[in-house]
Write a structure and sequence with these properties.
Blueprint (H helix, E strand, L loop, with lengths): L39 H4 L2 H13 L10 H8 L4
């Protein structure tokens, strides 16, 4: 789409399913550096990013995981 964002809202965004993802070739690289993990640190920002996106989209704060559609609906109805 000429560099344009395809989905501009969560109601049209379809996340990738396992069958849609490319094959990955993952390898560990020997190093003399101090070990700092193999990707775990980046995962700690996912839930807050999703919670912030939900807040921006519908105006409710979710502060517990897992973030589910039921939790969003409960927060919207004032029960969450």
């Amino acid at each position: 789409m000429n560099g344009q964002v395809k989905d501009v809202n969560l109601d049209t965004y379809a996340p990738l399913r396992i069958a849609d993802t490319p094959e990955l070739d993952i390898r560990f690289v020997d190093s003399v550096e101090v070990p700092v993990g193999l990707g775990e640190p980046a995962t700690t920002v996912v839930a807050p990013a999703i919670a912030n996106a939900i807040f921006r989209a519908v105006g409710v704060r979710l502060r517990h995981i897992p973030i589910t559609s039921a939790a969003v609906l409960a927060a919207l109805s004032g029960k969450g």
